[in-house]
């Protein structure tokens, strides 16, 4: 039992602390033992040492006021160790190829592989020295813990571990003995550049070395920045700028904008990945700015204008991914410079396309009144002969086709850019503004845009050979409203639209009453009640006329039946366009007079104080005509009926001269010429012109064509007319528009002055222009001239300073 206990005591010897030094114990012996222990730690022999013993040595040195010797002695030992690490472990791994400070290509193949391997070996040596040093410093820090607490803190000195980091900077990273710094920065830069050129590097090694630089700091006198920020990052950014500046030049020489943008996108992604994986994420913003500044900012216009691959080519080919990439990258350029250039490029491109549309759809026919061509077409009565009728298109048909094609081309172009805006430019409102400005510019550069747009709407709203669904009509009208918003001269469009609507209503050509009213509702929503007031009045007249027709039939039944049916549209002169309600002379045949007188009595019995003026220029008639072989039902204009009735009692072979026809009908020459053309020179020639020819002359004679034949039982002979205005008609329209604008400008001036009482000259002109801009763009001379006119008529007067106007109630 005693042996057993004795054995137990011998197995657990008591650990005795080291003896406290006395005055007779030299401090140098204590330091010598401690210094030897530190060297053993640095030589990786710490396992042989007693922590308690050497902690006590450091404790005693601090306790007995030898902390300065201990602090400085440890610094010297650490510096000595670092110098040895540099000499023995790092210097031998210096890359033989040296460090390049330029941004030129490093070369590929075996040379690049060798450079990458050498750089990796060197960086690993630096990393190994760091790990050796920090490992030693952690153990030394533990031994000198009391020194950090009792001496360093009291003397306001860095802790020993921080001293070790500072010494690593001065003796390794920024060694004055060996060019480690130069090789380290150059090697890191070379590794990055090798990867940029497509070579493979060991990212983990680079990451470990940049981590070292991010943990180390420069002296306080240099700002106390990390070595990464102070030494590596500026050089890295400088080299990156040089590299991408040269790359931009090389890539632009390929002449492929899409490929160039793909490369920029790839580079931006690569550099983002690079900063995440082995550089500081704080470098990311500056690096991205450098890429943008060198790859994009100086070359924006070059990219947009690059022949065969720039913006125009991308739009032509609907390259949505390339356009989206273009937009996204241009947004990166600061101060909205990129978006501004893109908007300018889009506007230029659209205006060029619009100019081509304007030039490609010019009406060169300038069809006059003598032009042969049926108004509103005969095809609906001749589906089998459609191709033959179209084989030789008249100038009027060409003019109409040109007008419709212009609108369709503009709509197609708008659809194209709307799609690009949505799919590629993320519906950007500023880009949309530029697109709209470009469309507004080239649409208004075509002086006939209001007429063409109204013709297009007319073509979609009237009955025709191309049946359209309600959805198709609605889509077409919605698109035309978009173009309508671009028009400056909306008042001119209103005049054309009223004329076309009037013909559709009076000829019964509207495909859908709902579509007609929907279009007017859209215009009302855009322009207000006054713009569509007269259009709605036209619908009211047609509704009232329909109701009146039923009432007249009842009246006619009570007072004796007429020999034929009579349907009269009573139009309010103020609602309908002037060409419709303008008084035209026409002597109606005796056979028509009783019916007209009957309707006059009926109308007078229901209305007092109203005067009817009979208009035959837009009326139609159905009449059965017997020819030699068979009879045909003819649908023709009222004027044509009046002329045709003159031949009812003419014997076979006899003719009537032009002057005789004019005397009997009292039709104006222009109307008579069109009427005779439709009867004798158009597709269905029920009269024979002597001599033959296209034009009507006062010396011509006409006879009934008894030999006329046609496979159709019912034939439509519409008045010959050009749907597209001639030069003379456009001049007349412009004169009427100008006259109407004078009144509108004066009314606006009076309205503004009545509200403001007194205004300066410039303010008045500005306000009037602003208020009238919704209908048309008034010129400054026009406004000034109307102001003078109102002053002459004493609506306004000049103030004493002559710079303002005063309203006179």
Automatic annotation (TrEMBL):
Entry keyword annotation includes Ubl conjugation: yes
Domain Cullin family profile: 448-680
Domain of life: Eukaryota
This protein's record includes keyword Ubl conjugation: yes
InterPro entries: Cullin (IPR045093), Cullin-like_AB (IPR059120), Cullin_CS (IPR016157), Cullin_homology (IPR016158), Cullin_homology_sf (IPR036317), Cullin_N (IPR001373), Cullin_neddylation_domain (IPR019559), Cullin_repeat-like_dom_sf (IPR016159)
Pfam families per record: Cullin, Cullin_AB, Cullin_Nedd8
One GO CC term on file: cullin-RING ubiquitin ligase complex
Biased composition (Basic residues): 9-19
One BP term from GO: ubiquitin-dependent protein catabolic process
Entry keywords, A to Z: Isopeptide bond, Ubl conjugation
GO MF annotations in UniProt: ubiquitin protein ligase binding
Region (Disordered): 1-26, 357-394
Transmembrane segments: none
Family, as annotated: Belongs to the cullin family.
Protein name from the UniProt record: Cullin 3
Organism, scientific name: Kwoniella heveanensis BCC8398
